[in-house]
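Q: Hi! First time doing this. I have a protein sequence and I read that you can turn it into a structure. Is that right? Here it is:
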Amino acid sequence: MVRRAPAQEDPLAVEKQYLKAHLDELASKYPGKYLLIKGEAVHGGFETYDEGVDVGVAKFGRGPFLVRSVLHPDDADAVIIPALSVGVPLVANP
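A: Yes, that's right. Below is the predicted 3D structure, encoded as structure tokens:
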């Protein structure tokens, strides 16, 4: 009998929920910006996605964080691995 591992919990569930719950407030405070969200806090608004990712990696390393546009909050459900965007390998010893 093959046992399957339990489905992994979404590591960005808290950040996605925060974005959706506070979208109107965040869109007004950061119009047209990409937000860097960790936990239930915004750590900056940026002109581009890449700027948000760069600051996120500098602040949080490879740990999970969310960078999403207030104009396209539904993109928060897409799977994106920011560490790969800046060239951080997922395997320490390939």
